[in-house]
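User: Round two. Same drill as before: sequence, then structure, for each protein.

Assistant: Same drill it is. First protein:
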Amino acid sequence: MKYQKTKYRNIYTYETTKGKFYHVRRSYYINGDKKEATKSRLKTVAEARSVLAEIERKIENNEFTYNKNLTVDQYWNIYSENRLNTGRWSPDTEINKYSIYNTHFKKWLGNTKMKNISRIDYENSLNKLLSQFSRNTVKQTHSVLNAMLNDAVRNKFLDDNPIDGIYIGQSDVEISQKRISLEEFKIWDRCAEDLLDSYYYTFVRLTYLGLRKSEDYGIKTASCVRLENGRYRIKLDDSRTKGRPDGGRMKTKGSERYLVADEKTSRLLDYAIPKSHAIAKKYGRILGPDDYLFLSDYKNCQKKLLGKPLPTSRINTMFKQISKECGIYVTPHMMRHFFATQGQIAGVPIEHMAAALGHSTSYMTQKYTHIEDEVASSVTDSFMRVIN
């Protein structure tokens, strides 16, 4: 194809059997490498000048640096990795987000370019989920992909989010109950203590104090320090999940904290800690300070797991067994909600409760002072007064 220069820089003409057309060619550099932006089959010089102006704008704003042809799967990998690296997702959050993405979006939209997502098709498909799930669940599902696409827009990988602000209808599916009453808790706790041996009841009971289940798994032998009053101060600075069974960092520095266990939990820890050392010795191990505290030695445990840290599915199995026995459905995360609710009822200051849950750093720093022990103890004591 032979191009003829015009009086306008970077605009050319060329002839075809269908007549005369305009062609735009503009060079630019990315990291020292020469690139070209081109556009052909433009019918008028005015159209060509408009296209050139848009190319100039994109060059000025570094928009050609970004690949706007990424698929949903490709950007999900970029997005999720960034969320983990910057600490915006905790290990538990990572599992939740990946579960939603893999279940609802990967097969459906994974190979679709983000810019080619049809708003109408997406809205219709998402609303079909209302026959299976509550409106809150569908909204949560939508929020995962919507947040990713908003991130792509902010980072200039996408011009606009095609699904932002879509309509989500109503659902006849009832919202699952995520809270338990004080009376239900007491029944469930009595059942747990009767059903489990003292070692694994200790593991379950620690969730009553606001721990994420990943934090319960992440307690190490050196995490538990016995204070002069016989109670244990437990440092929470590690977590284990299905995706990270060998442990890893907490969500943020604000998630790293410690708690002071109540008297009953402390008495149970007096038993559980030496029990862990005995289990380890039984299977040819010696526990060091950085080894995880709670080990596998339960009935029907797989041989390859014996004496090793509890598998990250075990706490869900325990909760299901207890719930089935007493007829009250409870999950580890519901215990976290229960701790927060009862703490507020007991009058614990909101900033203290937020810190106890690992949501802020308004108290409980890395330095273990007497004042901080008192604050941590007061949160636990206030909670225990209500439930007892």
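Second protein:
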Amino acid sequence: IWGSGSPMREFLFADDLADACYFLMDSYNEPTLINIGTGVDLTIKDLALLIKKTVGYEGNLVFDSTKPDGTPRKLMDVTKLHDLGWKHQINLEQGIKLAYEDFVEKHI
């Protein structure tokens, strides 16, 4: 895994993105921009551990500190979106599980 695992990232399930876009097209008509996201972030290391748990991987995770970490934190401010009444429905753990189950069903 590139870097130290310490950078923080935000993830959004594709179905939630589609739902947010539809919600905004249907209910928002202002010239200001609206960020779409969950407002929740976690470290790359925690993401890797979550994936490891979900897929049942029993090996070790190896972080390559010779590779760059990139931006320390990428998190959207979703205050406006939440104030309008939209929030994501699928948390990261559920999303990874759904994606993994779909992959297994279609490819294994």
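The mean pLDDT is 98.

User: Perfect.
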